[in-house]
């Protein structure tokens, strides 16, 4: 969802390994992490972040089968952090607005969609305020991305 130019540039960037103890790449998103559940975001882990990373961002979105939606944006995560706990945000991290305008995790609801949890290694902090506009936040992430990785679910269980 960062735009076609950003997508083309990402192909040349280093790859981060992204996984979860509760969500497997290519499998359905457990209902607990959807609008049917009450847990919030799933736990995520990542590795192979470049040494020159100064902050990390996580964006959760749909792949656009029915229009595309951003469900969560978290940025200015300490680069020494390599995981997000279930239903939480790391100390010092900042959440941006989602497509719906909500600040924080907006649980996915469309069972037909595939949902992507993308981790971005950034050169620099975004230094944006909590609840900054989605467009501004995504453009800032795209401008500072030096590596990325993704875990993709195949609809909601």
UniProtKB/TrEMBL annotation:
Pfam families registered for this protein in UniProt: PBP
Family: Belongs to the UPF0098 family.
Name used for this protein in its record: Phospholipid-binding protein, PBP family
Lineage per the UniProt record: Bacteria, Bacillati, Actinomycetota, Actinomycetes, Streptosporangiales
Family annotation (PANTHER family): PEBP (PHOSPHATIDYLETHANOLAMINE-BINDING PROTEIN) FAMILY PROTEIN, UNCHARACTERIZED PROTEIN YBCL-RELATED
């Amino acid at each position: 969802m960062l735009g076609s130019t950003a997508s083309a540039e990402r192909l040349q960037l280093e790859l981060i390994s992204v996984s979860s103890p509760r969500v497997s790449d290519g499998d359905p998103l457990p209902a607990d992490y959807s609008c049917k559940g009450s847990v919030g975001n799933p736990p995520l882990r990542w590795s192979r972040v470049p040494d020159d990373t100064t902050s990390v961002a996580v964006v959760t979105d749909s792949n656009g089968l029915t229009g595309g939606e951003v469900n969560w944006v978290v940025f200015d995560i300490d680069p020494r952090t390599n995981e997000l706990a279930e239903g939480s945000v790391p100390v010092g991290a900042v959440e941006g607005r989602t497509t719906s305008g909500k600040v924080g995790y907006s649980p996915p609801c469309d069972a037909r969609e595939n949902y992507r949890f993308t981790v971005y290694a950034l050169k620099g902090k975004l230094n944006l305020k909590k609840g900054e506009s989605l467009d501004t936040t995504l453009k800032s992430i795209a401008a500072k991305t030096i590596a990325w990785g993704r875990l993709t679910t195949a609809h909601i269980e």
